[in-house]
């Protein structure tokens, strides 16, 4: 799972000079739908469970409440690993149990457990903090009192404790802008970046995964202060190292992709750290080419998503960056692969990426002359997913605006046949766009060329 974008994506729209009011409103609708789709696959907070079976154990409401209350009683009589284990499992099964825990004054007891020197008890207490912080905001607000303690353990030597505390801090940061600001003031960002620099991913992959999760949620800070702190702590050099050293098959690549997206999809980054964007694009394209070699289809498509999204956002900020991207030989190969994949999220992302790329007129021609890519876009105009079909058709519309010569070329590639098939489409937006394109064809192409 990845993270919800709190700031608006910096996608640019362009390429259609005479779009009707219906089409204009449909683009706004598309943008909103794009955001909603993304939120379905992205989460700010995560529970931790030992196994799916334990997470899905179903007890009656009365039984669960009794378990929580009995565990709190045990904690009152002494620090108890079994009681903490029962609690973090209950929290993962239902948010309501976290509320019961708070109401029964369990939080001070949990806070006291962090004073223990017993590693097993500390791990269980931190696990409770993880699942409490993954709950509803009214509970998370109470759990914020644990943040100084959690941050302190980040600097310790217990790797499991560091992983759990980073995870809990990630959940806290993902809950609200206020929490992000508090964690920044408490020094959380700098310590997390330091952990990225220590190369624990060589032996402690889970630790770095939690650290990256926390950094991603912090990087969605609305004021940009957290990202600026990361940059001042040399996050860029660490990102370069990660992209260079870590295998494409490593699960960490997914978290790195979302961190890249949060760092480099911001307008402030364009202003303050523009010199990083071109090298980052180059590294991402190289990584995407490695991802294409992953044999497991679901793993490949999962890890592709944040990187494709990131590239789309980066080139959507400045046309110069699209020109940089077109010089990457591997760019067109993975664009084609993404267009032909079965994952609708990736198809949608890569279509918006191509849309941003084609805002630059010279880049439109580069896409058009790639016959395989053009054919893939034509095919997606027939997609059973209406939003995908409409996105693809808008790209075709952008292509027709380049020149009469290019329009004639598109006709020779089967544009007229494509439009004729779409004239009977049930969606009014696709029908409207198709009719606009046909009118444009008739008005522009000379009679002898038809």
Automatic annotation (TrEMBL):
Keyword match Membrane: yes
Superkingdom of source: Eukaryota
Keywords: Membrane, Transmembrane, Transmembrane helix
InterPro entries in the cross-refs: ARM-like (IPR011989), ARM-type_fold (IPR016024), Armadillo (IPR000225)
Membrane-spanning segments: 402-423
Record PANTHER family: TRANSMEMBRANE AND COILED-COIL DOMAIN-CONTAINING PROTEIN 6, TRANSMEMBRANE AND COILED-COIL DOMAIN-CONTAINING PROTEIN 6 TMCO6
Protein name per its UniProtKB record: Uncharacterized protein LOC106055980 isoform X2
Organism ancestry: Eukaryota, Metazoa, Spiralia, Lophotrochozoa, Mollusca
